[in-house]
Amino acid sequence: MKLAVTEGSPAAGQRGRTSGRSERMHQLRRQIWHYRKLYVLLSFGVIFFALFAYGPMYGIQLAFKQYSIAKGITHSPWVGLDNFQTLFGRQEFWIALKNTLIISFLRTVFSFPVPIILAIILNELYSSKLRRGLQIVFTLPHFLSWVTISGIMMNLLSTDGMLNSLITALGGQPVGFLTEGNIFRGLLVFSGIWKEAGWSSIIYMAAIVGIDPALYESATIDGASRFQRIWHITWPGIRSTAAILLIMSVGYSISGNFDQVFNLYNPIVMKWADIIDTYVYRISFQQTPDYGLSTAVGLFKGVVNCILLLSANFIIGRLDSDSRMI
Predict the structure, then answer these.
(1) Residues 6+ apart with CB under 8 A from 59
(2) Residues near 293 by Cβ (< 8 Å), separated by ≥ 6?
(3) Contact 263, 146 (CB under 8 A)
(4) Would the CA dihedral through 209, 211, 214, 215 be positive or negative?
(5) Is the entire prediction scored with pTM above 0.90?
(6) Is-contact 83 292, C-beta < 8 A?
(7) Is 174 exposed, middle or buried (CB count within 10 Å of its CB: 0-12, 13-18, 19+)?
C-alpha cells in the first residue's frame, strides 16, 4: 500500500529542497553561459594567481625543514623553528629589518602624497594639450628599468660625476651622494618619486574624472576659490582611493623595492641601505645556499606585511568607515 505524500510532510519538504537546488543550479549554469566571455577573461587571472601565488606556497614548509637537494622538499627532515632561531640570532637580519622599516617609512611619508598633489595640479591646468604633454613627461620614467636609472645616477652623482664636478668648479667640496648613508636613503626616496609619481598619479586622475562637474560649477557660482574647490570637492572625491592605496602601501612596507636598492647600493652604504630583500639575495646566492633560512625570511615578511595591512585597514576604517578595504 503506497502512502500519499501530503503537503508539509518530510518527504514533500525534501522534494521541495531538491527541486530548489536544481532550479538554482540551472539558473547558475545559464548565467555562466550568458557571461561566458567575462568568465574566460577572469580565468586568466585565476590561473595566474594559482600558478604564481598559491602554487609556490607549497614551498613554505622549507622554513621548518633542513632542505636537501637529494631528498627534495617533501622528504627533507623537519627541524621545527631552528631556522627562525638562527635568523633572529643574526645581527645582519636586524640591521636589514631596521633599514627596511626606515626606508619604507620615508617612502610613505614623502613619496605617497606626491602623486596626489601631481594629479590635482594637472587637473587644475586649463590647457588640455599642456596637461597631456606633462602627463607623458611624468609617466615616461616608469618605463625605464632600475638598471638604466642606476647607471644614469651613478654617472651624475659619483665622486667624479657631473654634479660633483660642477660643485668643485664652483669652489665647493664634493658630496658623497652614493657613499653617505643618510644622503643615500634620501636618494632612494627621491629616485622612487621621480620614477613612479607620474604613473601613480594616473589612478588619482581617473578618480578625479569621476567627480560630477556640476559640483565644481555650483561651487564656482557660490564664489568658492580654487583652493576651496580642491579641498571640499576634489579631495573628498579621491579620499577613499587614497586611503585604499595607503593601506596597500603600508602592507608592502617590508618589501623594500629590491631592484632599486640592489642596483644603487654599494658596500660603503650597506649599513644604511641593506634591506630584507637584498639580505635574502646574499644568503641565497652569494653565500652557501640555505634555502630553509631564506624561506623563513620570506615567511616572516609575509606575516609582518599581513599584520601591517590589517592594522592599517583597521585604523583607517575607524577614521573613515567608507575607506576600509575589508
Answers:
(1) 73, 295
(2) 83, 86, 87, 283
(3) yes
(4) negative
(5) no
(6) yes
(7) middle
pLDDT in tens, 7-59: 555 555 566 566 667 788 888 888 889 898 999 999 999 999 999 888 888 88
pLDDT single digits (tens) 205-259: 999 988 988 998 899 898 888 899 999 999 999 998 999 899 888 888 887 688 8
What does the block give as the cell for 313?
585597514
Reported as a single tens digit per residue, the pLDDT across 163-183 is 888 888 888 888 888 888 888
Total residues belonging to the chain: 326
Extract the C-alpha cell encoding 16: 521541495
* Dist CA 43 CA 129 (whole Å): 39
> Which contacts qualify for 64-69: CB closer than 8 Å, 24 or more apart?
64/292, 65/292, 66/292, 67/290, 67/291, 67/292
